[in-house]
Amino acid sequence: MTTDWLIACMIGLGKLFLHPLLYISIAYCLFIGYLRVKRERHDFNTKLYRNSMELRSLLSHGLIWGLLLSCLTLASGMTIPLAAMLIMAGVTILAVLTMNKRIVSPVYTVGLTFFILFFLYDRELKLPILQDAINQLDRSIYPTLVILIGLLLIAEGFLIVSNGSKKVSPQLQVSKRGQPIGVYVSQRIWLIPMFIMIPGGQLPAPFDWYPVFSIGDMAISPIVLPILIGFKQKVHGMLPEQAIRAHGKKVGALGVVITALAIVGYWYPMLALITVILAIIGREFLHYSQRAMDERLPFYFSKSKLGVQILGVIPQSPADKMGLVKGEVISKINGVIVREEEELYRALQINRAHCKLEVIDNNEQIRFVQRALFDGEHYELGILFVDDQLKESGQAG
User: Fold this and answer.
1) Angle CA 224–189–79, to nearest 5
2) pLDDT, tens digit (0-9, with 9 covering 90-100), for 93-109
């Protein structure tokens, strides 16, 4: 029996390639990468990461969470009717078309699906295609969807912490006072393929193309349900890794609370409706409170009186190999005090074969780094910084 389940699961994963959300998410990631590279080239005349960076994160992290959630849902016997999955897929596609990554979050897509089903339940509406699936609905779907929201919020929080805080992209902006500042933007789309069980052994036409399989004469069939999670966060008041990880932990904590309330909702159905509302309000509160807190902080990446602050480091560049990181301030190069971009360039010319830097790190401690420079190395040191003479474009040093 176990062998049959494993074979069926492998077949189901293979049929994931029939689902349109897979190809929509791939195209979406490539488009996000294209826009990011275009912006980086506009600001810094170079790109930091490849166009495919977002695409590489699409499934690599989502597969792990898909496996965890699949084991949990299959072991607990959670079932979701076909109507819910079809509406959820349609809502997700519409969310993607808005081009707002934040809206492509399960709290919104699954939450909206919940309210649509709540409206359609027990109403005499004639809906083409969906009518048979709608007729099979019962009230047990509501707490199940809410539990799914909670579990996916937990997954979203962990994904933000583990992946959303890595390889964030710098951007140049002009403050309200007309001074150029540096900000960081993290944008991700994650695809979580998870197994959910649907009531009944067969899917009605015309949905027999859907990635579903049956095992023996069982009345419940596992189905591969692709879940998209979108994320976007902009940070200018602190180091981006710290801000994004802190935000991700709060999202995960919200997911734990929502899951607990949803489980109680099995015995108190009205609590399921309240929990969905709390989940949406809570996710919105986390977003706007994070943005408000960031706006209250002074600009982390701006002109420094101590030297030239590092906004970013090009991967595999000499600066990267020297261990320089964003936020640090270069105060001296080859023994020469530097406070401006031009002074940095002149100091580099003193000894083009070797450079010695005095750096103030993010803990305000002074350290010294040095390295030989070789002809043809990418953009000399490979440092991105904010230049007070550049209002709309940047320069790489």
Assistant:
1) 25
2) 999 999 899 999 999 99
